[in-house]
Input
Amino acid sequence: MPFTLPSLPYAYDALQPHIDARTMEIHLTKHHAAYVTNANKALEGTAWDNTPAEQIIANLKDLPEDKRAVVRNNAGGHVNHSMFWQLLAPAGKGGGGTPSGDLADAINAAFGSFDTFKGQFTDAAIKRFGSGWAWLCAKGGGKLAICSTANQDNPLMGEAVAGCGGTPILGLDVWEHAYYLNYQNRRPDYVAAFWNVVNWAEVARRFKAAR
Ligand code: MN3
Output
């Protein structure tokens, strides 16, 4: 079955003022939609056209060489964005605040404190040169680590491909298309605003599933 564009679990304007409605709409209906279309086009009629996107990007080496780059970029983009929408929620209505329970404990164990974690993740997002993503990943035994990837790479692709491994439980899109309309070149302001709309319950759910 071909990949399909998901709908957002909230309205386009639900994340304002932190992420504006027009950016959310273009991001989903133009950028994410293009990844879906291009991934489907590349995989149509192949043995992989029924395989979940996560499974495909975790096994890129199994694809014919002439498909590998287009699938890496576009199935990668589909996986990344499908996850990203779920990781956001309106501020004060599921978005923002701080994590609790096992996730909070794991963050404290890995980074010392939530504020230290936040600082390191912010750094990874700001210092990613060009387009890419910042990630919080669960590694073996539920140990957490921060990393970043270029383009639409995902830690599920593995360290050797993406330069970053583990199961992503939080991701931040730092492509300019994710913030340019509202923040222009001010990526640090966008990253700061992101913390107001992080859906920690969803991050915790992914952490639990990854352990
Ligand atoms: Mn994007």
Observations:
- The chain has two domains: 21-86, 101-210.
- The chain has nine helices and three strands.
- The mean pLDDT is 97.
